[in-house]
Write a structure and sequence with these properties.
binds 2-acetamido-2-deoxy-beta-D-glucopyranose, 3 domains, disordered C terminus, alpha+beta, single chain, 5-stranded antiparallel beta sheet, Immunoglobulin-like, Four Helix Bundle (Hemerythrin (Met), subunit A), 651 residues
Length: 651
Amino acid sequence: MMDRSVVAATALLLAVLLAGGPQEAVRAFQIGAPNSNKTCTTLLPRHSDNVPRAGPSPFALSAAQGARGEPLNVTITSRQGFPYKGFILQARAADDLMPIGTFVVHDSQNTQTIACFGEDHNTVTHSNPSEKTSTTFEWTPPVDFNGQVIFNATVVQDYSTFWQGVVAKALIGDPALTGSTAGISTTQPPLTTQRTSTTNAPVTMKPAINYRALSPIYIGCGSSKACFGYPNDCDVDGNCNIMMTSLERGDKYIFELMSTDPRSLYVAIGLSTDQWMGDDLVMECVVINSEVKLFQSWNIRPNPRKGNTRLPTNGNLQLMNYSHVDNTIYCQFERDADTTVNDVRFNLPTSQYYVLLAHGDEVKEDGYGGVGYHFRALFSGQQGFLSDVTGFKAASKLLLRLHGAFMIAAWIGAASIGIVLARYFKQTWTGSQLCGKDQWFAWHRIFMVLVWSLTIAAFVIIFVDLKSWASSSKNHAILGVITTALAFFQPIGAIFRPSPDSRRRPIFNWLHWFVGNSAHILGIVAIFLAGQLPKAELPSWWIWIMVGYVAFHVIMHLMFSVAGCISERQSSKRINSFPLKEMSSSRTPLSSAERRQEAPHACFRKFLLALYIFGILVITIALIVIAVLAPIESNSTITNFQNWISTNRSG
Ligand SMILES: *[C@@H]1O[C@H](CO)[C@@H](O)[C@H](O)[C@H]1NC(C)=O
Ligand SMILES: *[C@@H]1O[C@H](CO)[C@@H](O)[C@H](O)[C@H]1NC(C)=O
Ligand SMILES: *[C@@H]1O[C@H](CO)[C@@H](O)[C@H](O)[C@H]1NC(C)=O
Ligand SMILES: *[C@@H]1O[C@H](CO)[C@@H](O)[C@H](O)[C@H]1NC(C)=O
């Protein structure tokens, strides 16, 4: 008596609350899905003026593999522990909407079978709207059924929130034995399926390193919550330097942030509809007087002024837990699923976002507040739902790395060698020619064409990657653009060079020398500056390798000059003097007879050149390896190793 009136009262209340919702639909929701042909086919609740949620479902189905004609268990679970109220579930053969087999309910209090299309027990649904977190049914396939069965459910969290197409697949019997290919897709060869179902697959097991004992933030990554961190896959390895997690719970989203960098004073997450900074919703956990506080802010579009302003939270954001111990900032907070910030709607269940993570040590105390400089900002490579437990992956840095490698190869490698050849080797290998040109000229041209192509390619690559002017690395970018412009016009000038006998030739020589060397110097300074770009993630000793390169380059130039002087003095004794370097000559240019004259000490010069090329090659390769494999300074490898040792010692 009592029970019934309570149910009736609740139903009435619900009906009133959902004013406008047809009573019948509310009743249907209360007592389970009706067995109408429409519901049986679409698996949608009758109150289908509400559309299913777009994002990945927080509920999951699981089913064991089954033997032919034998029952197997199918379970609906909540991935994140929050309950559902209703569901409808069928088993179907692939490519068919007709339910097959029969269900037996274990929990007859809350669940029931219904007969779709007149076949008994082929569909299960709830029988009351109480909150459930797990429901198991026994399903028996038709006697002769062999192949893949798809369990397909719609799970209702509450009247207006439900997910369609929550599926699990199972193989019944041994499909390899039948001619029927029903449901067996080619991507799922029966052999593999059999193997995984009959063995415990020890091969794929990860070594039992218990990183997760380090921090609870890692628990549930990939199964109940979405995780994203740096370095890549650190959420699996348990060694994140910076990390976020998110999960959907009812009409709230629960976030966690962590930074283990001892320099950090804040750790922040940004939600963005594009992959660039600007117009992003930011939530930041900031250390203030040994406490951690939660704020909301907005990344201003880079034009006209880049920055971050703090915004009121309007009660949409609640700090739930935090800690700041062992240099690790951790915070957990919840945010309303659907909010409007700065006139932009953030509807987390229906929209996909790029996730931006940053940590830094500058918190602005000026009128705007907000967070300042960050030492690392990490963008997800794709946009995704914050409830998608598969998580986020960092954006690829391939293009950035290619840009670095190309510029290093061009300016440290090819340009250095090409310039040395033109300056000191005009009177060497004079006996032979390459493609009708003097050896030095042919090789100079080859190296410079290389510089030109690599530079243009690297320039295009970086603009394709950034899609905009990088304001965070202004000096590097400005130098890079000037270098590229100089490099671009240099060969065009060279093509239209005046003939060697022309009066304007010395002007050309001087200009060619000036533009080439300016480009070289600016290019090298730009590579120096790259060492300071957070994005490049170069080690702090990058600058020392560059200093080493410059020292080597200068010393070798001195030696080439000395060698040149010696041979010039000797040759001026031998014949009437001729200038070794056309451009520095105030006298008439070399006649072709003089040109063919090999200057003395060619052997020594060749030895110096071999030494120089060897040194440049070593430095270039080293720099490219560091730039491409960056960050190699990261101590994650060391930490991994230490953890491994301590785990093994205690285990
Ligand atoms: C699950 O059922 C729905 C409704 O019939 C259908 O649209 C969807 O394609 C099914 N999913 C799979 C994987 O069969
Ligand atoms: C299904 O689960 C129930 C309850 O957990 C158990 O008693 C039963 O043996 C299971 N059936 C199969 C086929 O595994
Ligand atoms: C429902 O489907 C069954 C089987 O396909 C069919 O016999 C029956 O007429 C249908 N009922 C309605 C109301 O369409
Ligand atoms: C906060 O975190 C601590 C430590 O993990 C835990 O014991 C406590 O229950 C948490 N509090 C809340 C409200 O989640």
